[in-house]
Amino acid sequence: MPLSMTLTLNGAARDVVLDDPRVTLLDLLRERLDLTGTKKGCDRGQCGACTVLVNGRRVNSCLTLAATLDGAEVTTIEGLGTAAALHPVQAAFIEHDGFQCGYCTPGQIMSAAGLISEGLDAEDPERIREGMSGNICRCGAYHGITLAVQEAARRMAADGQ
Ligand code: FES
Ligand code: FES
User: Fold this and answer.
1) In the predicted model, what is the mean pLDDT of the chain?
2) Cα separation, 11 vs 135, whole angstroms
3) Of 32, 53, 54, 153, which has the fewest Cβ atoms less than 10 A away?
4) Which residues lie closer than 8 Å to 81 by C-beta, 6 or more apart?
5) % pLDDT > 70, the chain
6) First-to-last CA distance in the chain?
């Protein structure tokens, strides 16, 4: 039986009808709402490529049933910044070469944004690495990723974000 729900998706209300209550948030975003910035890596909670924010907190969208999100606020990489006004994490990833092929990058950026909003100490690289450990990068761009997260955390703290 179809299930109707409403999400706030990247700041806008979206009515969604789920014809299958087992659909994950990842498949809802990519296959039904054309938001393909969120990537599917492992589809089993091991790589972090599918990371989005739900009510401000980081989640693996491949492990999240869409049907549990009625009334929730979901932010994907498409809603974090714009080409004209990048989010500080996006800008820092570019400045510090925080990616190579880019496949893991949307998940890395969403995870970093969530981690910073949790109150990350920008001067603790070990904590950054630990906090980002759920996001795997097969290209091994970890050095640039850590520098980017550190830079973004510093800037956002300075801006009071
Ligand atoms: Fe979700 Fe890998 S695709 S954790
Ligand atoms: Fe290629 Fe991370 S940049 S997997």
Assistant:
1) 96
2) 25
3) 32
4) 87, 90
5) 100
6) 43
User: What domains, with CATH codes, occur in the chain?
Assistant: 3-80 (3.10.20.30), 88-158 (1.10.150.120)
Residue 160: per-residue pLDDT:
82
Eight-state DSSP code of residue 100: S
CA of 156 to the centre of ligand 1 (A): 27
Give me the sign of the Cα torsion angle 64, 1, 28, 136: positive
Ligand 1 in contact with 73 (CB < 6 A)? Answer: no
From the CB of 40, is ligand 1 less than 6 Å away? yes
Q: Is the ipTM of this complex over 0.85?
A: yes
CA distance 82 to 32: 22
**Sheet containing 51-54, strands listed edge to edge, beginning at the edge strand earlier in sequence:** 12-18, 3-9, 73-75, 51-54, 57-60
Give the up-direction half-sphere exposure of residue 123: CA atoms within 13 A in the CB hemisphere: 1
Q: Confidence band (pLDDT; 50, 70, 90) for 89?
A: very high
